[in-house]
Amino acid sequence: MQTSPLLESLMESLRCLPGVGPKSAQRMAFQLLQRDRSGGMRLAQALTRAMSEIGHCKDCHTFTEQDICTICANPRRQQNGQICVVESPADIHAIEQTGQFGGRYFVLMGHLSPLDGIGPNDIGLDRLEHRLERETIQEVILATNPTVEGEATANYIAELCGQYGVDASRIAHGVPMGGELEMVDGTTLSHSLAGRQKIKF
Amino acid sequence: MQTSPLLESLMESLRCLPGVGPKSAQRMAFQLLQRDRSGGMRLAQALTRAMSEIGHCKDCHTFTEQDICTICANPRRQQNGQICVVESPADIHAIEQTGQFGGRYFVLMGHLSPLDGIGPNDIGLDRLEHRLERETIQEVILATNPTVEGEATANYIAELCGQYGVDASRIAHGVPMGGELEMVDGTTLSHSLAGRQKIKF
Ligand SMILES: [Zn+2]
Ligand SMILES: [Zn+2]
């Protein structure tokens, strides 16, 4: 668009958003200019504050602008004694939406990946160990992703828990609820068979 | 996400962008926080400047932060004597990309729509009339959309041009190049037949 350097710069900047190509960037820029300039200004302010003020929770390492996030600071969640280990802050969001977990979290911001030089301390396991040592924790629930790296990371943390006499558990993997058996991949189905549980009457 | 009000506010604000739902907003926010904070800050600045500084060109009404946009201010384009009338600034972009047009534009920012109370002056036709009167214009090329409203708007402007002795033309509509005839809708095909041109040897 040769009519406006500022418009070109806006379209270019919008492309830092995942999934936004030249066409969507153009549509977004025109939409904001034509119909929602106040929305665009609010977005600019939200971005500025989020990018500059959001850091990591000292306890669980998730994104927060506070020292300790609201989940970690909640006395009820502290008393619960369970810590759920996840790879990313988005996983917390997914688990919170189930309403099935009342403990606290620990966010690794990744997983062990020796080939990429990512060792235990790079994903904060020194801080997790410190918590296992210092706090009264009943159970560590390992909710890393069901990938090779996620499994290896879960195993490593389970051993760490063992050293401090803390129970470790792994979330169940298998056929998704509501899914059709024939649509599920073989690895998942193997996991599902191996992880079968006796039906109690 | 109960861990950060600023993060929630960022996700909410991202939804002012067209095509961005709760899931994409979350993915965008996490992506920026985790991997591209400087991109997020640049986007915030581009948004702030674009939303507050971009107005409309006094001559063609397209988006620009200048009084007169760079296309209208270009002496070569002024000498060309052609004005292409389009419904939106995005149409200018599309036509510029063909490299086939060396004149100036006039952006209606919509089309005539009597049922919605949108009359000639609401789409700037008083300003277009003023230009027809004052400037030396050889041809007005009507590139409004091939919709009922777009056609009606083109016809209205063609009559206006007639009053000032200025030639008006309508861009051709028909089967898209590279398209397959059997995939084209009936209205387009009718247009294509009616608009047939004699092959000259
Ligand atoms: Zn926390
Ligand atoms: Zn202009």
TrEMBL record, chains A, B:
CDD domains: TOPRIM_recR
Domain Toprim, chain residue ranges per copy: 81-176
ZnF bounds (C4-type): 57-72
Classification via Gene3D superfamilies: 3.40.1360.10, 6.10.250.240, RecR Domain 1
Coiled coil ranges: none
Keyword list, A-Z: DNA damage, DNA recombination, DNA repair, Metal-binding, Zinc, Zinc-finger
Pfam families: RecR_C, RecR_HhH, RecR_ZnF, Toprim_4
GO biological processes: DNA recombination; DNA repair
Molecular function per GO: DNA binding; zinc ion binding
UniProt entry tagged with the keyword Iron-sulfur: no
Keyword DNA repair found: yes
PANTHER family tied to this protein: RECOMBINATION PROTEIN RECR (PTHR30446:SF0)
Similarity comment: Belongs to the RecR family.
Function: May play a role in DNA repair. It seems to be involved in an RecBC-independent recombinational process of DNA repair. It may act with RecF and RecO.
Name of the molecule in the record: Recombination protein RecR
